[in-house]
Amino acid sequence: MLRINIIANVSTSNATNDTCADESRSVHIPIIFMTIGILSNGVALVILVKAYKRFRQKWRASFLLFAIGLVCTDCLGHIITGSITIRVYAMNKNWTRIDSSGHLCPFFGTSMVFFGLSALFLGSIMAIERCLGITQPLFHSAKVTARRAMFILGGTWLFALVIALLPNFHFGKYTVQYTRTWCFLNTKDVKFGIDSGILLLFSSLGLTALSTSFLCNTISGVTLLRSHIKNKLNRQGKSHHIEMLVQLMTIMLVSCVCWGPFLTQMVSPFLGYRVVNRIGLTAGISDAGDFRR
Rounded to whole angstroms, how far apart are CA atoms 184 and 173? Predict the structure, then answer.
């Protein structure tokens, strides 16, 4: 998945230059990731489309639409970012040759942020949809229609695209990262200002999406457990809910493992800086008080 590629790139940034010495062998890594991602998403898309044709007039339609949107987003992300990464490796990470016009890195960074945020947002939206379907079935059947699901899907992509385009309008910037294999938001020597603002915006949105997924999936799981004890749901309906909840839990766990450390790492320096400044300010006020006395 795209988020696995992202966290793999981030984790390699702590390695020494010796680990990236053999470029001819390294180029096989993005090719393998890209191929696996495209094939797995292609199979999932075929299954989901067939399921949607069967349930398009039923309560599962909205969930399947969001799932199809997530798979299409992830597959397209693999194709675009994977193709650029393969080119980077093939040209020995020489960004002077790779991006002589200066437009490829911003496009690469925009793609990484757009596909990353879209996947996180859609995961949380699917969790919210299932939480409503399990806890408020009447409201869900009346309000959460396939047409509204498509509207929400389009709005999610548009919102993620707006965030991803901000650095192209000088609200932050995209730079080549330490490993010289990918571009992302500037994370080097960032001070409080526009660069730190866009980093905090990206990480806070991502962490909010993960937290929302965790909360909604927990509520859904507890509700299903209670209904199982009280036998409120019929066996067929319960099995469908459990099947979708397992899928959501899997998506959430993968997102937490791959995105959680990355997003936390991005936001933690600024929080630490704020705490240090606050402690320093308190100490300064205390020293001033002692001086006056």
Answer: 8
CA atoms of 69 and 290, how far apart (whole Å): 62
Distance CA 75, CA 282 (A): 51
Q: Three-class SS of residue 227?
A: helix
User: pLDDT per residue over 99-138, tens digit each?
Assistant: 988 899 999 999 999 999 999 999 999 999 989 988 888 8
Q: What does the block give as tokens for 293?
A: 């006395």
Please tell me the predicted confidence (pLDDT) of residue 165. Answer: 96
Strand 183-185 with 174-176, pairing: antiparallel
* Separation CA 172–CA 168 (nearest Å): 8
By the 10 Å C-beta count (0-12 exposed, 13-18 middle, 19+ buried), 229 is classed as exposed
Rounded (10°) CA dihedral 201, 11, 265, 108:
-10
Region label for 191, one of left (φ > 0), alpha (ψ between -120 and 50) or beta (otherwise)? beta
DSSP-H helix ranges across 91-193: 95-98, 104-135, 137-143, 146-165
Low-confidence ranges of the chain (pLDDT < 70): 1-26, 55-59, 190-192, 228-241, 269-293
What pTM did the predictor assign? 0.79
71-82: burial string, b at 16+ Cβ within 10 Å, e else: bbbbbbbbebbb
Pick the closest to residue 119 from 75, 62, 85 (CA basis): 75
Residue type, 58: K
pLDDT attached to residue 138: 85
d(CA 198, CA 109): 13
